[in-house]
Amino acid sequence: MRLLPDAGIVKLKDVAREAGVSTATVDRVLHGRPGVRDATVRRVKDTIERLGFQPHAAAAELARGRRQRFCFVMPKTLNLFMADIVAQLSTIRSYLAARRALIDVIETDVFDAEALASTLEDFGPRYDGIAVVALDHPRVRVAIDELVEAGTVVVTLVSDVPSSRRAHYVGVDNIAAGRTAGTLIGRFLGNRTGKVAVIAGSLLLRDHAERLFGVQQVISSEYSGLTLLAPVEGRDDDAHNSALVNRLLTEYPDLVAIYNIGAGTTGIGNALIEAGRARDVVFIGHDVTPQTRRFLMVGVMDAVLSQSPGHEARSAARVLLALSRNEPIIAEQEQIGIDIVIRDNLP
Amino acid sequence: MRLLPDAGIVKLKDVAREAGVSTATVDRVLHGRPGVRDATVRRVKDTIERLGFQPHAAAAELARGRRQRFCFVMPKTLNLFMADIVAQLSTIRSYLAARRALIDVIETDVFDAEALASTLEDFGPRYDGIAVVALDHPRVRVAIDELVEAGTVVVTLVSDVPSSRRAHYVGVDNIAAGRTAGTLIGRFLGNRTGKVAVIAGSLLLRDHAERLFGVQQVISSEYSGLTLLAPVEGRDDDAHNSALVNRLLTEYPDLVAIYNIGAGTTGIGNALIEAGRARDVVFIGHDVTPQTRRFLMVGVMDAVLSQSPGHEARSAARVLLALSRNEPIIAEQEQIGIDIVIRDNLP
DNA sequence: CTGTTAGCGCCTTCAT
DNA sequence: ATGAAGGCGCTAACAG
To answer: What is the CB-side half-sphere exposure of residue B335 using CA atoms within 13 A?
Structure first.
C-alpha cells in the first residue's frame, strides 16, 4: 500500500467530486461567472472552504493562455532618475517574458499635456495596461479615463493624476517628502538661523508643487529661526541651477540651506563647492545617482530623499500584471516609501 | 487566411523543429542535463538564441509538479519586530500555497546555541529550505553547513552566520546601521557636547555587537565633542531599560543622546518622559512599532532605524522558492535597506 | 443551468 | 544519444 502521490493537496477535481458537480461548475463558481444556481454556488463554495482548496496558480495561468501587452509612457527627456527606471525595465522584461507578458516603452513630452494625451489616445488602446508618468491636467485626465473606460488598466508612475480613474499610483507621497526635507533641514541646522532656498524644476509639475508645499508647512510652522525664500525654478537643468545658486549666495549672505526639489542636483553641488560654501550650507536633494552619491560621501550633500527606481519599475509591472489578470496585489509590497539616504546607509 | 494564434511566441516545440531534434532533447539542453552530443548541444543552443526562446514559467512549474516545504526557525520569545515577521508569514503562506509550497514556523531559544543547533538538526532535514534567525556560534555553523551539505537551502534571517555555507542572508548591514545612528546623533546634536549612551540587548548577539561597532566608529572619529559611554545591556527588556536610563541620567547630567541597539524601546522612552528629558535628549532606536511610532510623533524619539519586517519575510520566502527551484533571483529586490524613519516619512 | 472534453507548454519516464 | 507520448491542474468551447 503506497502513499497517495498528492496526499494533502486538494485539486479542483476533488472539489467537484466532493460537491457532486463537474469541474466546469466549480470553475464557474470560483470565478464568479454566471449560469449556476444559487444553491449550487453555495454548496460549491462550502466545499471549497471545507477542503481548503487553493487553485494552482501555474495551472490556471497556463490554461488561460492569455498574453498581455503593457506600455510604459515615459518623459522624452530622461533625467537620471527616469533613465534608471527605463534601465530597470530590461530586467523586468525578461521576468515578464517568462509569464507571457511584454512591455513597450514610449517616450513623449511630459510637459505638454496635449502631446501626452494624444499619445495615450493613439497608443493606449493597443495595450492591456499602461504605466504613465502623468501630468495633472484635465486633458490628460480625460485621456486616462477613456482608456480605463475601454478596459485598459492604467497606473500612474512617479507623478499622479488623483482625480482620474487610474487603478493605482506607483510613487511616493510628495507632500510627505517635502515635509521630510523640511524636518531634516531644521534638525541639521540645530539652532542656526537664516534663509532656506528651494529650487524646483517646474512648479507646474504636481510632484514638485507638492514637495514645495510640504517643506513650507514644516519650515514656517516649526522653525521660526528659518526663513523660506520664494521658490525658484531651474527646469531641472544643471546650468540653470548653478546660476540660480550663485545668485542666491550673493543675494543672501545668510543662506543656510538649499532643498532641491527636482533634478539638476549636480549643478547646485558644483556651484556650492566653487563658492566654498559646500560645508556650511545644508543641502538636501532627491534621488541617488552617481553624482549625489559622491556629494553625500564628501559632505556636500547632507541627505538624499529617494524613491527607489527599481522598486517603482517592478511595482508598476507587478501591479499591471496582477490587475489585468485580476489577481490580488500585496498592498504593503506595492507601497513606495520615502527613503532618507545619508552617507552611512547608501544602498 | 487568419492570423496564427501564437504569432511571435516561440515555444519549445518550435525550437525542436527548427533544430531538427525532439522536444526532449531541447529540454535536456535547456537544463544542462547529460546525454546529448556536444554538437547537438551547440546546435540547440544556437537555435534557442536565434529564436529568442523563453520557456513559459507557468508551464514549466506545472509540468514539474514539485512541491516544497520550507521552515522558518524563529526566536521563542518574540519581540514586536519578530512577531511582525511571523504575522507577515500568513499572507505569504497563501501566496506560496498557490505555488504549491508551504511553510512551517518553529520557535526555539535563539540565545542557546545548543538548542538552536539541535532544532536545525532535528527538523531541518524534513524541509527543502530553511530560514533561520541564527546565532553566530560554531555549533550553529556546523548545523547549517550539514543541512546545506544534505541539499537543503538555508538562508539566515535578520542575524547572519557569515562563516557558514548559507546560501543567502536576508537582513541589513548592521555595522552600517550603527554608523547611521552615529551620524544622525552627531548631526541632530549640532554643536552640543556631552555623553552618548548605547543600550544593547546582549552584545553576544552578532547584530547588536555590529551596531555598537558602527556607532563607535562614527562618534569617536567624527564628533570630538561627544563621548561614547561604555555600552550597557538591558536584555531587550522594557523594565531593565527603564532602570538603566534612570541610572544613566543621574550619573551623567550631561547625557545628550541615547542609541538603543535592540528592543525594549518603550522602557527607554517612558523613562525619558518621566525624567522630563524627552525633548532635550536625542533618542534613536530600531524598528517601527505602534510605540516607536507614537514616540516619533510626539518628539520623544528623533529617528527610528528600520528593516521592514514585511520586506524581510517576503524576501526570505522568494529567495527560498527561487533557490530551491533554481530560478534566478533579482538581486536588487532582495537587498534589504536600512530605512531611516522620522515623523514625516512614517510608513 | 450543468457536464464533457480538448487543450495550454513543458517535463519525464520509457523505449529505441 | 535521442524520440514518443502521457500527464501536470485548470479553463473554455461546445453540447446537452
So the answer is: 13
pLDDT of residue B282: 98
Same domain? For B225 and B299 the reply is yes
Same domain, A300 and A189: yes
Question: Both B272 and B208 in a single domain?
Answer: yes
**Which residues span the domain enclosing A319?**
2-22+51-171+309-336
User: With a 7 Å cutoff on the CB, does A325 touch strand D?
Assistant: no
Closest chain A residue to B332 measured between Cα atoms? A310
Cα A157 to chain center, whole Å? 5
Whole-number distance in Å between A27 CA and C2 C1' = 12
Provide the grid cell at B44. Answer: 540547440
| Nearest alpha carbon to residue A251 among A284, A275, A269, A273 | A275
Cell of B186: 552627531
Same domain, B327 and B270: no
What is the structure's pLDDT at A104?
Answer: 95
For the domain that residue A66 is a member of, what is the CATH number?
3.40.50.2300
CB atoms < 10 A from the CB of B25, how many? 21
Q: Is the CB of A298 under 7 A from strand D?
A: no
Q: For B56, which of A55, A98, A332 is closest by C-beta distance? A: A98
Verdict on whether the full-model pTM lies above 0.85: yes
pLDDT in tens, B61-116: 999 988 999 999 999 988 889 999 999 999 999 999 999 999 999 999 877 999 99
Give the span between the Cα atoms of A165 and A152, in whole angstroms: 11
**Which residues of chain B are within 8 Å of residue A311 when distances are taken between CB atoms?**
333
Q: Is B58 on the interface with A (CB under 8 A)?
A: yes
Q: Which residue, among A256, A344, A346, would best test binding to B if mutated, counting the most B CBs under 10 Å from its CB?
A: A344
**Is the separation of the CB atoms in B155 and B167 below 8 Å?**
yes
**Does residue B12 approach strand C to less than 7 Å at its CB?**
yes
Residue A137's Cα: distance from chain center in Å? Answer: 19
Return the pLDDT at B124: 79
Instruction: Please tell me if residue A63 touches chain B, with a CB cutoff of 8 Å.
Output: no
Chain B contact for A279, CB < 8 A?
no
